[in-house]
Amino acid sequence: MHPVSWSARICGIALLLFHLPALAAGEAYAPFGIPLDFVLFGATLLGVALFHRHTLQVALAGLAVITAYKLEVTGFPEGAGLAGLGLHLEHEAVGLVNLVGLLLGFAVLARHFEDSGVPDRLPRFLPDGWKGAFTLLAMIFVLSSFLDNIAAALIGGTVAASVYERKVHIGFLAAIVGAANAGGAGSVVGDTTTTMMWIAGVSPAELVRAFVPSAVALVIFGVPAALQQAGLATIRRQFAPHARIDWVRVAIVAFILLSAILTNVVANSRFQGLSDRFPFLGVAVWMALLLSAPVRPPEWKLLPEALKGTLFLISLVTAASMMPVEKLPPASWETALGLGFVSAAFDNIPLTALALAQGGYDWAMLAYAVGFGGSMIWFGSSAGVALSNLFPEARSVGAWLRHGWHVAVAYIGGFLALLFMLGWRAGS
């Protein structure tokens, strides 16, 4: 048995033994005034942060423990026992199916874009010196606005590894993740958290405001990160100058994205009642994928690995939906600012799910906070975890904080810019 597995089991057993008296009595327990639901949820997120190689197992185990506790002790928002669980899952089903469809669909979509040849042409537009490094970050920012932030970070990391011959500064790696997360914060197709808000009924136009703090943050962290990279290595000019663009694949990417956007607009404007009962968005993405498959076959072999990541996220989102949100701090700009720092240590997906269930947030401000805030630590966002697979040296919290200090400064600067320029706009 792997030692990490034993560590996870010991932690879980210790947690259950500590709370056994209350559980045996069938009473809700609140250590230090915190509902046990949140303690179990926090323990799950801590397990995800500590045991990176077993995140799916930790998430599934956490969901199982939380579900058992809700079944036996507190019940669900829709009722107690198995009947309450069934009603709760029925209530969450459409959102979860939409999320599964989008996550798997975007994994295939990202590979279409990578195979289009567009990433191979990007280095041709990079000037020399620190301006070239900053331009690369700006490109990642733009890519993430219409492509998943994980894909944007991976494309940016791949380009950086190529043009700098793998001599990439850790501060610049942090900036790549920051650019990917910042660019996705204002787009409903650029980040899983914004996609979740979109599915929940938040208008794409409302989230566009998040580009204001994201752009400010890009300048704040981008310049020092570019200077760090320029001081370490210069741009290599022997890249593939004759790389050709597959415009058919580019058209397929545009077709899939437009299908998703138009479907969401029509469903929420004309069939709002039905959109709560049928996963129009996820189905639209997959219909577009299947219709375009005869023209350029997708790489279906990506789906098994993508499914593991999807199950991990779905487990956390489902667990988050069971939390007693009426006991969360009231929605405010101070809470949103704090959630950004929390997202640096814990996954931003469940934080977003909790905020959506509670309501009342400025969704653009929250999208920026939980989207970009996770960039402050390498495992604080999916983009950071993905990029660390290309650059294992990034898997050091100390090095990330020491060399990527500008990301934390940029988070605060961007947040304050949004607050003072556009103010707090509470949503539903």
TrEMBL record:
The keyword Secreted does not apply. It is a multi-pass membrane protein. Residues 1-24 form the signal peptide. It is found in: Membrane. InterPro entries: Cit_transptr-like_dom, NhaD-like. Residues 38-371 form the Citrate transporter-like domain. One of its GO terms (molecular function) is antiporter activity. The keyword Iron-sulfur does not apply. One of its GO terms (cellular component) is membrane. GO terms for biological process: sodium ion transport. Keywords: Antiport, Ion transport, Membrane, Signal, Sodium, Sodium transport, Transmembrane, Transmembrane helix, Transport. This is Citrate transporter. The lineage of its organism: Bacteria, Pseudomonadati, Pseudomonadota, Gammaproteobacteria, Acidiferrobacterales.
